[in-house]
Amino acid sequence: MRFMMFMLPNISEDDWMPSVEAVEAMTKYNEELTKAGVLLALDGLHPSTEGVRVSFPGGKPTVTDGPFSEAKEVVGGYWLIEVKSKDEAVEWAKRAPCADGPVIEVRQIFEMDEFPPEVQKAGGR
Amino acid sequence: MTEPTPGRDAPAVEAARGAIDAVWRIESARVIAGLSRYVGDVGMGEDLAHDALAAALEQWPKSGVPDNPGAWLMTVGKRRAVDMLRRRSVLERKHEELGRQIELRSEELSGPELDDSDDDFGDDLLRLIFVACHPVLATDARVALTLRLLGSLTTDEIARAYLVRESTVAQRIVRAKRTLAEAKVPFEVPEGADRTARLASVLEVLYLIFNEGYSATAGDDWMRPALCEDALRLGRVLAELLPDEPEVHGLVALMEIQASRARARVGPSGAPILLLDQDRGRWDHLLIRRGMAALDRADKLGRGFGPYALQAAIAACHAAALTAAETDWVRIAALYDALAQLAPSPVVELNRAVAYSMAFGPDVGLDLVDALVGEPALNSYHLLPSVRGDLLEKLGRFDEAGWEFERAAGLTRNSREGTLLLERAAASRSRHQRSGPT
Question: How far is CA B389 from CA B277, B401, B424, in A?
Fold first, then answer.
């Protein structure tokens, strides 16, 4: 099963660029995931100040410039991993090189066969 | 890490159990590998690792999971090893050699708790893979031992995946370990020419596991797809351990691209859907990208493509085509030419014929297929008459096509495929009757 691990750095966006040490530690962690054969993809995101939100009040798309939420809710990046259980995903999340502050949110990815038949059909099945 | 659990209430123990299972899944292969090197025997290494796991199951629910659970398991395993060797030497005082060994290892153990670097872990893991796939073992023993020592499946799960009894798998594993011990197979990665042959065995085992899972259809036990996942994961692990081996990347590329089609290859009723009829929107494009990247790694090593990389390159041609009609059959035909040179087999020859028919016309393909009729290895291979029937049909020779589809239906072991072939036979027959004898 696949899980998305969202990294919520929980820092001011002025400090968004990580230090050399932080990048080194994170690279080592990413290598561990790779060596274990569980990492499918990962990316880091630009801060939300450079992002926009598109909402649809009254059905009309409306664009709002960032920053758009509290620091602790801003996603800084993600890992996409393939593991055998939720416990295993959690165990990998626990091994991330983080100090006090950041939060990693672990979410399972839907597979098509988890949906009821009529939804699968609508999804092109 | 996990908070220590106050008291010993059942949910807390249950939660710890889940965490320990997860740690075991992540660490077990490395712990087994490290301990196998330590005692020089894979069977003993695995037993010690399980002793360490038992200790963890007893202690961690109370104390919490330690900060470095892998190192904890290794240290406990090493202590058990020393205890075990000591007990043995009491029994066999004559074995002075062994006594000296223990002294040595005790010293080693009393040093820094765990100084094994990541590199050592990697080397041990590679040794374990090579030993589990040792040619001294029969193929099914290699497969069972690899899954047991390196995979993430329990013996029960392996048994279910292979549709055999748990005791059968357990026996295979016990016998395999005994065979390795009796043959005194050293715990090391072979060098030179031996290494090439042994690596071929490792890749073969991984691909066998993958195919066992891949050949399953939707109605089968859910464990079978887990075989694909495990083979793919082990392939990815191997690619990091042996980054300079093009065929490792070739095999990974092949498995990634084949796995990308898993969702598209079975219809809602469980009937298989042929590659060219699949809904390409259902292919897993993440896996396709990973497969292409792996193939690129093989290519960049600049030593040409081996059989796995060639098959991956063929799979990549299909993956790169947005529609079946856009498939680059001329390139696929050329890749099959290369494959037929490197790894000649009647099945490759048959696939080459199909590629030629798609690239240059059914008559060209039929000539190649006709050369295979009477090939003993293909006597009971349903795809030979099935392909021949397909080409005859395209050439308007419906009567002959009908016969071939019927023959193919009689040979296939897949009932859904058999039904499909009989339908095609009937369709050919009725077209023959309509068009009159040719």
Answer: 18, 4, 9
Count of domains for chain A:
1
Mind telling me how many Å the CA of A75 is from chain B's nearest CA?
A: 21
How many angstroms separate the CA of residue A60 from the nearest CA in chain B? 29
Angle (CA) B63-B66-B67 rounded to 5° is 145
Among chain A residues, the shortest Cα distance to B233 is held by: A37
Q: Which of B22, B122, B281 sits opposite A90 (nearest CB)?
A: B22
Interface contact flag, A91 B19, Cβ < 8 Å = yes
Q: Given an 8 Å threshold on Cβ–Cβ distance, is A37 in contact with B237? A: yes
* pTM to 2 decimal places: 0.88
Residue A84 to residue B268, Cβ atoms within 8 A? no
Q: Is the pLDDT of residue B63 over 80?
A: yes
Query: Which structural domain, as residue segments, surrounds residue A74?
Result: 2-122
Which residues on neighbouring strands pair with residue A2, listed in sequence order? A82
User: Within chain A, where are the H helices?
Assistant: 20-35, 86-94, 117-122
* Contact yes or no for B233 and A82 at CB 8 A: yes
Question: Helix A20-35 vs helix B223-241: angle between axes, to the nearest 10 degrees?
Answer: 130
- pLDDT tens digits along B262-276: 888 887 777 778 899
Alpha carbons A111 and A114: distance in angstroms, whole number: 6
**Residue B295 Cα, gap to closest chain A Cα (Å):** 16
Q: How does DSSP classify residue B345?
A: -
* ipTM computed for the complex: 0.90
What are the structure tokens assigned to B410, written together?
Answer: 């009689």
Chain A residues close to B26, C-beta within 8 Å: 36, 88, 91-92
Q: Other CB atoms closer than 10 Å to residue B426's CB: what's the count?
A: 13
Among left, alpha and beta (phi > 0; psi -120 to 50; other), residue B112 is beta
Tell me if B382 sits within 8 A of B376, measured CB to CB.
no
Cα A16 to chain center, whole Å? 16
Sign of dihedral through CA atoms B228, B231, B235, B236? Answer: positive
Query: What's B4's DSSP letter?
Result: P
User: Which of B120, B126, B123 is closest to B149 using CA atoms?
Assistant: B126
> B136-178 pLDDT, tens per residue?
999 999 999 999 999 878 888 888 878 788 999 999 999 999 9
Question: What are the tokens at A70?
Answer: 């509290």
* Residue A94: closest C-alpha in chain B: B1
Which is nearest to B250 in space by CA: B325, B310, B339?
A: B310
Q: How many angstroms separate the CA atoms of B239 and B117, rounded?
A: 19
On the CB side of B277, CA atoms within 13 Å amount to 7
CA of A86: which chain B residue's CA is closest? B22
State the nearest Cα–Cα gap between B393 and chain A, in angstroms. Answer: 30
pLDDT at B377: 87
H helix or E strand, kind and range, residue A39: strand A39-44
Mean pLDDT of the B250-260 span: 97
Between B19, B26, B263, which is nearest A36 by CB? B26
CB-based burial label for B3 (10 Å; 0-12, 13-18, 19+): exposed
